[in-house]
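Worked example 2:
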Amino acid sequence: MDGVGLTQAAEYGAVRIAGVGVTGWDIDPAGVGSVLSRVWESERGLNEGISLYGKGVEGAVLSVGTLDFGGGAGQDSGQAGLVAVALSEFMQGTETDVVFMPLRTGNSINGAGEATNCYVRGALEQATNAQRQAELVPDVAAVLEAARKKGTGE
């Protein structure tokens, strides 16, 4: 991306900029690219952390034991213990928030990149639309439903 500065932005004209609901933009595409690159790195760390979180809770659920009402032995001989049930309920209760974080981050990164590219091309209305799309709340329920269907082979 080349550096589009205030002088070049002014060449688009105040009427054109005002016509798309923006009072004026002065974007440094190289700076945006640098920031987005660092955010992508952080987002990878977020995904790794979420994966470790899931594996950690899963390991804890398997390690806390079971309730055994019949005197049987072994991990699979009883019902899930109280701690395992509590951990499972906690995971279910936080699932939407955990899925939301990387979705929101990805949408924001992609929207900022797309809006910047549109800005560089002089497509200010498209830049505004890309910015508005990036601000929309991700549909976590649809993502979770699709993941569950994929997991069950539907």
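Residues 14-148 form one domain. The first strand starts at residue 66 and ends at 67.
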